[in-house]
Amino acid sequence: EDQVTQSPEALRLQEGESSSLNCSYTVSGLRGLFWYRQDPGKGPEFLFTLYSAGEEKEKERLKATLTKKESFLHITAPKPEDSATYLCAVRPSYNTDKLIFGTGTRLQVFP
Amino acid sequence: DAGVTQSPTHLIKTRGQQVTLRCSPKSGHDTVSWYQQALGQGPQFIFQYYEEEERQRGNFPDRFSGHQFPNYSSELNVNALLLGDSALYLCASSLEQGGVKVTQYFGPGTRLLVL
Predict the structure, then answer these.
(1) Under an 8 A CB cutoff, do B45 and A103 touch?
(2) pLDDT tens across A42-55, in order?
């Protein structure tokens, strides 16, 4: 069964303290891994799409990487405004449309 | 560039009632997907509409139905509401290119509370 697991469930960081969020997946194939940011009560905001192992994408303080079994979202020198829930989703190879989401990592960055 | 819009933002219903939620896709997009997000969970796929037809469906009962209009906007209907239907309902739009749906962009959601 296709599955996405994110860890940790919650992460508290001091401003400037870099860390990584993990997304491990089990799918029959992979036609895209997606990272979204979600603020409380809002819809997910698209961050990155990764398609193949070894691929990396960067945006400001965020960098996403992909291996054959997992993806990491690295946060460098985070600021309080980076506080949000970060969601990982996969598009399985046999299914072109449906996204399967993990439960997210809730990040809090304190000044 | 207008993003995905949804209405209403919040809704309160009682058990057994019916509800209709609305979505307008991002400008230039032709495909709409609906997701249900319970508190503390990731979004769960309900179904997707393309060319005014339901193209794919997740593991939801047929109390959940939808429609897509010629202008690509979409509605989600839920009949015989249950307490467990309380959730954030998200609409996502995408553009089919070469038979593949590219990145899905989400709207702000409709918060439904069933009492």
Answers:
(1) no
(2) 999 999 999 899 99
